[in-house]
């Protein structure tokens, strides 16, 4: 099994540059399917999910490649509308190819998407919205067949929950559809605004992205462009939490302050000094950590569910009692039992975790249950007494470009190995 061998250290020190955001790059790559021209993305992270996306575009007849932080696609010759099950299972965001394929080809044959096991991850909102736009959808044996007998048309769509993926899927389906689509109750995550900005650069007409009402006026064609992917706010949060746990001082470059406020507020309350200067953030911790009351995950601009496991690892070492309420994904607490193996005192019931801070975490043999749980265990192990063996690190490679090298460059001792 792939793993990391992590030796605990006392301080992190130095500078890290945050890469482009996975959760922005993946929908933008899916959006390339809609573009009648060449696309070049810069700051595109070299992640296994990005390489899976390249494979999906390739199997649909497009030219695509990702090298050295750049991504290229030419989807002028999309020839297929069928994504094989083995590719759909590689990641959750493969669901976005439904909207993109319908927009481009008018039909799509896909199976249910894979991705991290975060509990139930239905796509009912995606399907409801696409049906309102004229798609005829049948599901049998895990295969979703979508056709658009009368073509895709604009519609008024009310999302009962601000789902990130459903909002993105509707935008993808709507940019080339006939007429106007309005999404009420849209998710407001910055990655949706980044997808919209990319599409606008290709000629799409989208307004209101980043608010809960998004309007899309269909156009007949999108042209190619060059685009820089927004910074990864969850990667930034990961380095912040690693620092909070280990102590020391870091400069984290390529950050957007407003997007990190929910995380920086919690870490400041726990005893870190955080300040921003332009796109750079300086974070240090010199004193022991203290508990923070209650952290509740919420849709943006609330506290991000993706950062919850990372902050939970920090709270494990905060003197006093902290409470975490997970409102988005029920299985986000699978990290807690691993933290307990490292000496943490965490009681978990349903969506609530009660954390009694301990003075030290200790090296142990632990497993990454998913991407962010894995990253959180890396942060915990970096600050623990002794050596940890972390297994299932392929999850981590889905969202971080060599996390072990990035943290090692600022003083952590992490080695990739087979365990
Ligand atoms: C995206 C992010 C993920 C992040 C999440 C919430 C990507 C590639 N992934 O995931 O990292 O944790 O947003 O910020 O961008 N739901 C339904 N029906 C649906 C769709 C969603 O019930 O049709 C529920 C889900 O089960 C979940 C909640 O809504 O409980 C949030 O899901 P959603 O916002 O759609 O997350 P993703 O787009 O899957």
List the helices and strands and how they pair.
Elements: E1 2-7, E2 12-17, H1 22-31, E3 38-42, H2 48-59, E4 63-67, E5 70-74, H3 85-88, H4 96-105, E6 107-111, H5 124-132, E7 136-140, E8 143-147, E9 156-158, H6 164-174, E10 180-184, H7 190-201, E11 205-207, E12 213-217, E13 225-228, H8 233-246, E14 248-253, H9 257-270, E15 273-277, E16 280-285, E17 293-296, H10 308-315, E18 321-325, H11 336-341, E19 345-349, E20 352-356, E21 365-367, H12 371-382, E22 387-391, H13 394-397, H14 403-408, E23 413-418
Parallel strand pairs: 2-14, 3-13, 9-10, 17-18, 21-22
Antiparallel strand pairs: 1-22, 1-23, 3-5, 4-5, 6-8, 7-8, 10-12, 11-12, 14-16, 15-16, 18-20, 19-20
List keywords for this structure.
419 residues; alpha+beta; UDP-n-acetylglucosamine1-carboxyvinyl-transferase, Chain; 2 domains; 4-stranded mixed sheet; elongated; binds uridine-diphosphate-N-acetylglucosamine
Task: Describe the fold and architecture.
It is a single chain. With 419 residues, this protein is of the alpha+beta class. It has 2 domains: 205 residues, Enolpyruvate transferase domain (UDP-n-acetylglucosamine1-carboxyvinyl-transferase, Chain, Alpha-beta prism); 207 residues, Alpha-beta prism (UDP-n-acetylglucosamine1-carboxyvinyl-transferase, Chain), CATH 3.65.10. The chain has 14 helices and 23 strands. Helix 5 runs parallel beside helix 6 and helix 8 packs parallel to helix 12. The model has no long low-confidence stretch (mean pLDDT 95). The site of uridine-diphosphate-N-acetylglucosamine (UD1) has 22 residues, from helix 1, helix 5 and helix 6.
